[in-house]
Design brief:
globular; TIM Barrel; 16 strands; binds zinc ion; about 400 residues; 2 domains; three-stranded parallel β-sheet; 14 helices; single chain; eight-stranded mixed β-sheet
């Protein structure tokens, strides 16, 4: 009697078993027809072309639609006080996992701690904690130890002078950061702009290149350094876009896919003629526009060389870097830079297998035909739950 009761209670609490049937499944950029995915307790229980629906399962007919693993943005920022909304917006756009690269406070760490559950319906987040800034190697080591004590997923530093407008972290300082982070078994993501800084950071043991090289074209030495340890290269093309796009009113403001989630107050501010004029005159707008042209050339070179590329945007860091929408814009721009849709999808997802959390997107139209079809979202599931 008691066993039966416990059994019934467990059944009542559990998520419905769900079978997504007969989709074209695009995993790791490769399409397979007539695939069904069985979801149980938030996880992928089976993937195959002949799965029978278990009794009581909810069946989702996905015939004629395209099923993909949720998108991963490898470089974003959540902002204190806005974390919950940001993670919901990312989820609605099908960005089911985000890596926040610095500045996260306690709430972001709490969100990370609470996501290993079958009831999740917002994006998963990984965090860096405070970005390390320091004047001396000793100060750097002390700060890394402090951040490491909070158990982040990585350590983040900036090696950049912001187009000559601010001092750059000294090599002896970032070497100390990397050494100390590695003692704590933490990878180090480096914000760079210049090719020489990227190479020097790689020689010092950096683990992630968090932005495009933007001052000149990457060379064989850079490619060899990246390949040696299979280092991720995160283009963040939309970061540059945000530095000059609001010189006028950008076309994407008219896109319903943008309008659905954008904050109207932010949009109104960005349409203000005085603000637009100020941006047009800014040396940052000019500098980063040039930077973007170089970044696109470098992305194509990096892809042709077989580097490990991971889609990332730096979205969320400022209100004008629209989380979720910028991830789609980033993918479309990656294609404009010369990448095939299959490559873009491979760099923007992680291969899905049995046992993984069921973080999935169902699209109406094939993104392999046209990468802009990433916007034809039918359903997003996180841990098998429909994102509201
Ligand atoms: Zn960033």
């Amino acid at each position: 009697m008691r066993v039966l009761f416990l059994l019934l209670a467990a059944t009542a609490l559990a998520q419905p078993v769900r079978l997504i049937q007969n989709a074209t499944f695009i995993n790791d950029g490769k399409a397979t027809a007539n695939v069904s995915v069985l979801v149980r307790d938030g996880k992928i229980a089976a993937i195959g072309n002949n799965i029978k629906a278990p009794r009581g399962a909810e069946v989702v007919d996905a015939k004629g639609k395209f099923l993909l693993p949720g998108f991963v943005s490898a470089h974003v920022h959540v902002v204190e006080g806005k974390e919950a909304r940001q993670l919901q917006v990312y989820a609605r756009y099908g960005i089911t996992t985000v890596w926040s690269f610095g500045g996260e406070k306690k709430a972001a760490f709490d969100f990370r701690a609470a996501q290993d559950t079958a009831s999740l319906d917002r994006s998963r987040i990984y965090v860096a904690g405070d970005v390390i800034t320091a004047q001396t190697p000793d100060e750097a080591r002390a700060k890394v130890a402090q951040v490491a004590a909070l158990k982040p997923d990585l350590i983040k530093i900036r090696v950049d002078d912001n187009l000559g407008s601010s001092p750059k972290m000294k090599p002896e300082v970032y070497k100390a950061v990397i050494e100390e982070a590695h003692k704590h078994k933490l990878p180090v993501a480096v914000h760079i702009f210049y090719l020489e800084d990227a190479k020097d950071a790689l020689r010092a043991g950096a683990d992630i290149i968090a932005h495009s090289v933007r001052d000149r074209e990457i060379d064989d030495e850079f490619i060899a350094l990246m390949k040696q340890r299979n280092i991720p290269y995160i283009p963040t093309l939309t970061r540059e876009v945000s530095a000059f796009a609001y010189e006028t009113t950008p076309d994407f403001f008219a896109d319903p896919f943008f309008q659905k989630q954008a904050d109207p107050a932010v949009v109104a501010q960005l349409k203000d003629p005085a603000k637009q004029e100020a941006m047009a005159k800014s040396m940052f707008a000019r500098g980063y526009k040039r930077g973007l042209a170089t970044a696109k050339i470098n992305l194509k070179k990096a892809a042709d060389a077989g580097l490990r590329i991971e889609m990332g945007t730096d979205s969320g860091a400022a209100p004008n870097r629209f989380e979720g929408y910028f991830e789609h814009l980033e993918m479309w721009m990656m294609a404009e830079a010369g990448l095939a849709p299959a490559q873009v999808l491979r760099y923007s997802t992680r291969p899905l297998k049995t046992g993984d959390w069921a973080d999935l997107i169902l699209l109406h139209s094939n993104p392999l035909d046209d990468i802009r079809n990433t916007k034809t979202i039918n359903t997003v599931w996180i841990a098998g739950n429909r994102v509201p």
